[in-house]
Amino acid sequence: MxxxxxxxxxxxxxLVLGAGCDRFPGxxxxxDVVIKPRDVRDFALIYSQICAGCHGVDxxxxxxxxxxxxxxxxxxxxxxxxxxxxxxxxxxxxxPFARSAxxxxxxxxxxxxxxxxxxxxxRPDALKGETPPPYAxxxxxxxxxxxxVFGIFCASCHGVDxRGxxxxxxxxxxxxxxxxxxxxxxxTIIAGQPERAxxxxxxxxxxxxxxAQEVTDVVAWLAAQRSATPGQPYPTARxxx
Length: 241
Hints:
Helix content is 44%, strand content 0%. The chain has twelve helices and no strands. It has helices at residues 7-20, 43-50, 52-55, 70-75, 78-87, 107-121, 143-153, 155-158, 174-179, 182-191, 212-224, 236-239. Helix 5 packs across helix 6 (107-121), helix 7 packs across helix 11 (212-224) and helix 10 packs across helix 11 (212-224). It is elongated. The chain starts with 6 loop residues before the first helix and ends with a helix.
């Protein structure tokens, strides 16, 4: 004989079973759901995955520029930070990260990076009321004058010929110059590298600041030291007889 359960009883049983589903062992929680890269909105996560390998944990540098340098953030505008992040720097190790340029970040994520750097690492008093040379050069440099300026501001650490001293390494190494842009050289001269005890434009020589043209001229002299074939120790004719 078939037993027919009352419809009310069946409905109640289903409600009880449904209520207990959330307690089944092994059910994924929200923390177990994989977030799609395009949906990440956390600065720390984006920075750690995209930037930290080159720019260091907490922006303190790891071969590439230290982004947590307050002077760098004082001279580089938000538009500059967005542009460099989105489009990279051609001819250097800085690749483009915007999806429109072949990278993996959307515009919102790039803004999160820029705003996160500002909120965490910028300091309103970084310049102490002084006006630094502009981020970008506004006139051509003169390599001849740059050699003289280098002797005044840089030679005590990098040597009279730029090949290094006990204080600091070579600044004219061909492989190094091949991997950095003129803007990188300019930024380093102005903002310094605090993680390496490299002074900024105010502190290379006591009581003597570098002016904008002096910075431009030193960059021109350094650029003139680039080799046409960096990393190649022998003449081309010997490699290809």
